[in-house]
Write a structure and sequence with these properties.
This protein is an alpha/beta fold. Helices cover 44% and strands 17% of the residues. The protein contains 28 helices and 29 strands. α10 (369-380) packs across α15 (492-507) and α26 runs antiparallel to α28. The chain is globular. The two termini are 69 Å apart.
């Protein structure tokens, strides 16, 4: 399909082509991967967005970078697969549907498990595709024929297979342990599903008297309500302050229960008083101490955050109300020694933000240490690279100190654990399919485990389960291991580490060659986006206003390794202007090329054409290197600089005479051929970054054309590289730029022609003399003269370019009296502003309290003003020569 109206439209309208071209790509099967096709395999599995989600800035960056890689790979002849899909997002999705039920006056318990799960599936079918439709608006070149869902039939089978294999190898076990419990979601959470926030709280110092009547020990705690479940007090064995108390018996305040004083190296002598309460049922460290010392465990807070019967008179109270009540009673009994303000990190459920309660519980765990060791070795050996490399240290630290993974969740939406309990003899069987009877006693009374698996368990299988594992499929053989994973640093442990462990365990190979970690997208001030701050930028709104390509290119241009992106309308608007620049170049090309334009370049090209072809080879190398090294911003910058500043600003201006009706037919045909060659190449070069506009402009060119997406990606040709020509042309352009700068600084009207005098040695001036026509036309010079090296430019404005002095006689060009007045006024105004800015920066109180970005902006402004005033001063000095 060839779009209409490209040549006559004055500005690029992205709405006209984006939807059309995406449909064209899909209809042509452009994104579909075929394992039987030739070419080196290149594959990416998309980090599956939650089925409840909608597009946010993190998704947009992540998907754009993947799309750049997959289009680049496809155009380089690789057999490319980008496999899409969504995650069932257990807790998040269940919460969404429960909120819907609440509006109807229902609870999931009233519906029952089967009916509730059916309701979630119905919601998924009706509303779960939103995020994928939004990815298509971004231009995502995913193979939609292979779309997967973490709870589809094939992946469910893979999850059961993986669980059973791990269980039979002793990698999965069931036991009691301290887990993170959400009283709102009523489920266990992994350590990674707990988000920590710094909160102002209190540290309470409580006296635990000796049972014999002695003073006892003072302990410090931030959670006094848990003391009702204390079964010991511990001190460090090396702490001389408590040496004589070790082995003594204390009386637990408010409960009057005898508890021992014991020694354990876990205790930090610097915290509080150096003595700590031990509550095995409600603290992970205390649980381990209890295991070592064979202490009993007393649970005093239940699944809903309510005090249990073991809390005595406080039973039935909310945990935070109980805290206040306990403190009040301790104060009444004279056992509260003191209370101090205390700043500490408080864990919250990452889904509902409820304060998490550490709780002892029977759960299913994955024994991660033996799984982590080969995953560590894969990165150390280079089988998998983490980019930027500084994230490797973080990966190693976490993996080398990994704790067993609590993988059971007490919710209904998810992969139900394939464990089956015999009601007669109590035996537990772990099987892929439900057993008909107990293999111990033969009873048919079998009950499946109620818990479901942590969402990250199924996500950990994603790179290979989506390709058909455990079956030996063509896709698995062709596309696994995958080539690259593009993801945010925030799920390096949530997901990447687990995929590494699972991939090696079940396939023997690490799932990725490269793991590319991108940074955060922040607001214009560098703040993290959040609904609370009200600074969230909606990608779809940005796309509606500026177009997909401008938005994508902004993300690419700012995606420097290890540096967060500051997003603003001004940045996107700037790159929308770039899209329009490229569009206008397309209109120019369209006016001058037609079906008769030569496809082969004739020999003996002029220097301007040899220069642009040489520069083109260099930018091809720079863009290719940037993409292949995941330095997306460098690739984007190289493309931008070439298109705007070299191709549009210089080359198109230089070749206009050769394209005019007055030019010789042979010159015009040659010029058209070079123009078309360069323009076609840069469209192909930019396609992975800005696919819609480049496809549109490609089809506006003459001749029958297939999709640009199918065109080979440009490869630099050393035969077209000419260092000498590049240096000579760079010198010529610097001379023209010097003239333009003088004209601009002195306010010489653009239409007024000037005399340009070039002073230097003959050999330095030779190239300029040969191409004087370009200098005259682009510098708007009526005359270019070559003056003696001894020439003294007393009343000329001058600039030095390498060994050449560029001189502009000013007599007759400007009104020196008026220009002198203007410059003095500008200097006065600039000095006043500089004084104000310097005063603010010199105010220590202001710089200490003002936001860092404002202080930085003021410093930048100060530097710019100083530079401007220096230039104005030199210009005034020059003008004053004429006034004297």
């Amino acid at each position: 399909m060839r779009p209409k109206g490209t040549e006559k439209d004055k500005a690029y309208d992205p709405r006209a082509g984006e939807e059309t071209w995406y449909a064209e790509w899909v209809a042509a099967g452009a994104f579909h991967a075929d394992p039987s096709r030739p070419g080196e395999a290149y594959s990416i599995v998309i980090p599956p967005p939650n089925v409840t989600g909608s597009l946010h800035m993190g998704h947009a960056l992540n998907v754009t970078l993947q799309d750049v890689l997959i289009r680049y790979a496809r155009m380089n002849g690789r057999n490319a697969l980008w496999l899409p899909g969504t995650d069932h997002a257990g807790i998040a999705t269940q919460n969404v549907v429960e909120r819907e039920l609440k509006k109807e006056g229902l609870t999931r318990q009233e519906l029952g498990r089967d009916a509730f799960v059916a309701r979630v599936w119905k919601w998924k079918e009706q509303s779960g595709g939103t995020i994928l439709r939004q990815l298509k608006r971004l231009g995502a070149a995913c193979d939609w024929d292979r779309e997967r869902f973490t709870m589809d039939e094939g992946l469910s089978r893979a999850v059961r297979e993986a669980f059973v294999r791990l269980y039979r190898k002793g990698r999965i076990y069931r036991g009691r342990y301290i887990i993170n419990w959400c009283p709102r979601c009523h489920t266990a959470l992994s350590d990674l599903e707990v988000s920590y926030e710094e909160k102002k709280g209190s540290l309470w110092y409580i006296r635990y008297p000796e049972r014999s009547g002695g003073q006892g020990v003072v302990v410090a705690t931030t959670r006094p309500e848990t003391m009702l479940g204390d079964t010991a007090v511990a001190v460090n064995p090396g702490d001389e302050r408590y040496a004589e108390l070790i082995g003594a018996t204390l009386r637990l305040p408010l409960m009057n229960r005898p508890i021992p004083v014991l020694a354990d190296a876990m205790v930090d002598r610097e915290f509080g008083t150096g003595a700590v309460k031990i509550t095995p049922a409600h603290d992970a460290n205390d649980f381990e101490v209890a295991q070592r010392h064979e202490l009993p465990s007393v649970r005093v807070i239940d699944e809903s955050g309510v005090m249990t019967a073991d809390a005595g008179v406080f039973a039935g109270m909310d945990r935070f109300a109980c805290r206040d009540a306990v403190v009040s009673r301790l104060r009444e009994e004279g056992l509260l020694v003191r209370e101090e303000p205390y700043l500490h990190n408080v864990g919250h459920c990452y889904r509902c933000q409820t304060v998490v309660e550490p709780a002892e519980s029977m759960q299913w765990f994955v024994r991660t240490k033996p799984l982590a060791e080969p995953a560590i070795a894969a990165v150390r050996s280079g089988e998998t690279r983490i980019i930027p490399s500084q994230w490797e240290k973080t990966y190693f630290e976490w993996m080398e100190n990994i704790r067993d993974w609590c993988t059971s969740r007490q919710i209904w939406w998810g992969h139900r654990i394939p464990a089956f309990h015999c009601e007669e003899c109590g035996k537990t069987m772990v099987e892929i399919d439900p057993p008909a009877k107990c293999d111990g006693c033969g009873s048919a009374e079998i009950r499946q485990e109620e818990d479901v698996l942590d969402t990250w368990f199924s996500s950990g299988l994603w790179p290979f389960s989506t390709m058909g594992w455990p079956e030996e499929t063509e896709d698995l053989a062709r596309y696994y291991p995958t080539s690259a994973l593009v993801t945010g640093f925030d799920i390096l442990f949530f997901w990447v580490a687990r995929m590494m462990m699972m991939g090696i365990e079940f396939t023997g190979k690490a799932p990725f060659r490269d793991v590319v970690i991108h940074a955060l997208v922040r607001d214009a001030r560098g703040e993290k986006m959040s609904k609370t701050r009200g600074n969230v930028i909606d990608p779809l709104e940005v796309i509606d206003r500026f177009g997909t390509d401008a938005f994508r290119f902004t993300l690419v241009a700012l995606a420097a390794q290890g540096r967060d992106i500051r997003m603003s309308d001004e940045r996107v608007e700037g790159y929308r202007n770039f899209m329009n620049k490229l569009f206008q170049a397309g209109r120019f090309v369209g006016m001058h090329v037609d079906g008769e334009t030569l496809r082969e370049l004739p020999p003996g090209l002029p220097v301007v054409d040899r220069w642009i072809l040489s520069r083109l080879q260099r930018v091809i190398d720079e863009v290719r290197r940037g993409v292949e090294e995941y330095r997306f911003n460098e690739a984007g910058s190289a493309f931008y600089q070439f298109v705007w500043h070299e191709f549009c600003d210089w080359y198109l201006e230089m070749i206009k005479p050769a394209l005019s009706a007055e030019a010789l037919t042979g010159d015009r045909m040659r010029q058209r051929a070079v123009l078309l060659r360069v323009y076609e190449t840069l469209l192909a070069l930019g396609h992975p970054f800005i696919p819609f506009l480049t496809e549109e402009l490609w089809h506006a060119l003459p001749g029958e054309r297939g999709l640009l997406y199918d065109r080979p990606y440009p490869v630099a040709d050393a035969a077209d590289t000419d260092v000498n020509v590049e240096e000579d042309m760079a010198h010529l352009m610097e001379v023209i730029r010097a003239v333009r700068n003088i004209r601009s600084e002195l306010g010489i009207p653009p239409g007024k022609q000037v005399e340009v005098r070039l002073k230097g040695q003959p050999e330095e001036l030779a190239f300029l003399s040969e191409h004087e026509e370009i200098v005259r036309r682009l510098a708007r010079a009526g005359v270019v003269s070559y003056v003696d090296p001894d020439y003294i430019p007393v009343q000329d404005a001058t600039a030095v370019v390498n060994d050449i002095e560029v001189c502009l006689p000013l007599a007759g060009l400007i009104d020196f009296d008026q220009e002198g007045k203007r410059l003095r006024k500008e200097i006065e105004k600039g000095n006043a502003e500089l004084s104000r800015v310097a005063g603010q920066i010199g105010n220590d109180k202001f710089t200490a309290n003002a936001p860092a970005d404002i202080v930085d902006a003021l410093r930048d402004r100060q530097a710019a003003l100083e530079q401007k005033l220096e230039k104005l001063g030199k210009n005034l000095e020059l003008v004053s020569r004429y006034l004297s």
